[in-house]
Amino acid sequence: MVAVATSRALSTGIQVGVTRAEALGAAQLVVARRLDDIDRAVSRFRADSDVTRINNAGGEPMRVSDLCMRAVRVALEVAAATDGIVDPTVGTSMEALGYDRDFAEIGTPGARSLIPAAGWRCVDVDVATGTVRVPPGVHLDLGASAKALVADDAAAETAAAVACGVLVNIGGDMAIAGPPPTGGWEVRVTDDHAAPADSPGQTIRIEHGGLATSSTTVRRWRRGDRDVHHIVDPRTGEPAAVQWRTVSVTAPSCVEANAATTAAIVLGLDAPAWLSQRGLPARLVDAGGAVLHLNGWPAHGEES
Amino acid sequence: MRRATPTTQAQRARDEGLTRVRRVTWLAGLGAAAFTALASLVAATTTPGHTQASSSPPAAVSAGGTLPNPTQQPSDAGLAPGSQPNAGSGPVIVSGGS
Lengths: 304, 98
What we know:
The complex is a heterodimer of chains A (304) and B (98). Chain A has 304 residues and is α+β, with helices and mostly antiparallel strands. Chain A has seven helices and 18 strands.
């Protein structure tokens, strides 16, 4: 029987699902350990994290944990695969927008000059020495890809540990491992991962791989005299223009799905062609609420 | 004293030969069974079966490409075929922005 537990970590909602209810407690323990590990490795808001040490190293190589090294490399792979549309050096841009502390503590920052991302190619990774270096003033933000990475890792590890099907959902981005429930995992796709089940959206079923949703309707704050959101166009340092308010994608892994949803938000009008070139099933909701399904995403079940 | 005729000697030799063949056949069968059992034990110990029946690709990202290449066919993205909602069948899992 399917059982799902809900909790909070990494400043977002967490869901752990299992196909054998007795395994839920053990599954939660495995996932909690993974979440703790990734927070210690990549949080921008912890003084003791590897990423904070990289960002504050003044251009010197910084030795980091294996997990941080992996998260950086995955972020760079995502950047390469998206031609820099999803870029880990947006940390500086995010800080200029006022997102320089835990989201709950942002308040109303004043207007500062926007800072485009320095670009992922300026990040030096030396696997042999286990070090990462960024130029002075360049700050990494691995947030999105790192959460997706931990969803993939945690789902695989947990499924092996508890010997049943597992779903790990981190703030709406989820990975599935092991045998799914009959007919697949039932998931409500909507604007906000914290929304109730009857919110406008669509219910789909997924059997394996990853599903991610990015939205400009959440994690918003006031900056000077305007509202801003957290998905930054690295080319400008500005929040991406809202052609699509919400994009969901399924892919073989959560990392791939998350990279595609973030890229689609930033690409705007070019997103459908970009997604279709890659054959990724996607659901895009435009600023007015009109829904577009692409590449095999199921058309039925939309509820407004 | 009755001497064994050549015919009787030949019959005895034949009988002894048949007895040897039966013994060898029996021992060979026993050996084959023992070998099969041993081979099964070794196989079970060194390559145990696993219970994960998922056909999904590895979750980890492999080096050399995180996203499918452009112009690729639709990916094996995990959507259930004919993905009809299974109303009220389980706990609510939500995918949305965060």
